[in-house]
Amino acid sequence: MSPAMITVALSREVLAALDHYITTQTPPRTHAELIAEIVSQWAATQGGQGGPPDEGLRPEELNASNDS
Asked: Which of 1, 8, 31, 39 is the most exposed place for a label (fewest CB within 10 A)?
């Protein structure tokens, strides 16, 4: 999947924190790289969203106990 460009408005405090963190990195990363990493790590914790779709049960697996 190709990346999509977005615009993000950050408070001065958040931007200052990002700037400070960037100065500790070797080699330093850009704001865009750091924010993309943060969002990617967050997305990975969201319980499988973005993964393959759930195909459900096969007909032979259906019974009264899983009928809802």
From this structure: 1
